[in-house]
Structure formats: C-alpha cells, structure tokens
Amino acid sequence: MRTNSLITASAALLLAIVAQFYFAAFGAFGDRADTGGFAAHEWVARTALPLLAVLTIIAAAVARVGRRLMTLSAVPAVVIVLQFLLFFAARALGSDTHPGGASLSGSIVLGFHALFGLVALVATALVLSAAWRSRARAGSTV
Ligand code: HEM
C-alpha cells in the first residue's frame, strides 16, 4: 500500500526531528570535552534528517497525494536547508555561531534556528497524520 511508505518515512523523520531537539539540549547542557557537545546534533542534521526528508517527499509523490500534502511533505527538507543557511548568514555577519559566543546580530539570526526546528516538527507531524487518516479512509471503503 503506497500510503504505508509515506507513514513510515514521515514517522521516521518525526522521530529524527524529536531526537534533534533532544541532542540540542544534550549539547547545550553538557561539558563539551566530556560529552562531545553538539556532535550528535550535527551528525543527525547532516545525515539522517536530509535522507529522511527526501524519502518523505519521494513517498508522498509515489502515494500520489494531493497538491497540498505534497507541498507540506517538502516543508521539512526546505527547513533543513534553511537551518544550514542561518549559520552561513550569522557567519557572514561576522558572528561566532557557538552557544554563548554569538554577537547580537548573530543571535537574532540564530534564534530562528529553534523556530525553524519547530516548523519542521509540526509540518512532519501534519504529513504523518494526513497519511494516517488517508489510510484509515481507504481501509474503511474496502
Ligand atoms: C530541524 C531541526 C534542526 C536542524 C536541521 C539543525 C541543524 C543544525 C546544524 C547543521 C548545526 C551545525 C551548524 C554549523 O556549525 O555549521 C546546528 C547547530 C546547533 N543547533 Fe541545530 N538543528 C535543528 C534544531 C535545533 C533546535 C530545535 C535547537 C535548539 C533549540 C538547536 C540548537 C543548535 C545549537 C545551539 C547549535 C550550535 C552548536 C555549536 O556549533 O556549538 N538546533 N544545528
């Protein structure tokens, strides 16, 4: 069933985003020398998140979802790219990008990092819930 792939991909992406929030706090509270700081956060950002975000788009296309859900399924991928761009923007402003080291302008830009993470989380949850409901509807008509 095509919707099953979308449910699996978006559920895995949601899990990875939730883990990303956890690893952000893990990095923020830990002693870097002891815990590795944001290494896990950066690893998830560079590997699992891009991969699962692209898989979610492909699964939505294969499931032939409507235009609205197709657009929504692309939101996490766009947001992940924007997350990287925020760091480029802060550095372009001459700011350090590490916690506790950013200038005021850098901090204003990097503050959006948390909000963008939230946008990715909500968009992914909406895709998962829509795919779930679509499967339930299809099941009830058989
Ligand atoms: C979709 C969600 C997220 C993605 C894709 C993401 C991605 C990234 C990436 C790629 C970096 C490394 C940037 C660089 O140095 O070039 C980073 C660093 C960081 N992220 Fe996130 N992030 C996400 C969510 C969050 C959230 C929700 C928070 C906290 C509220 C957060 C806090 C941080 C902090 C504090 C750093 C700086 C670590 C350091 O370099 O010392 N991130 N993130």
Supply database-style keywords.
mainly alpha, binds protoporphyrin IX containing FE, elongated, 7 helices, single chain, 83% helix, 142 residues, 0% strand
What does this 3D model show about the protein?
The chain has 142 residues and is mostly helical. The protein has one domain (2-138). The chain has seven helices and no strands. Helix 1 packs antiparallel against helix 3 and helix 1 (2-29) runs antiparallel to helix 7 (112-141). The mean pLDDT is 95. The site of protoporphyrin IX containing FE has 23 residues, from helix 1, helix 3, helix 5 and helix 7.
Oligomer: single chain
User: Which class do the helix and strand fractions yield?
Assistant: mainly alpha
Distance between the termini: 13 Å
C-alpha Rg, in Å?
Answer: 17 Å
Shape by Cα distribution? elongated
Average pLDDT figure: 95
Number of helices: 7
- Beta-strand proportion: under 5%
Helix fraction by DSSP (H/I, runs of at least 4): over 70%
Major sheet details: none
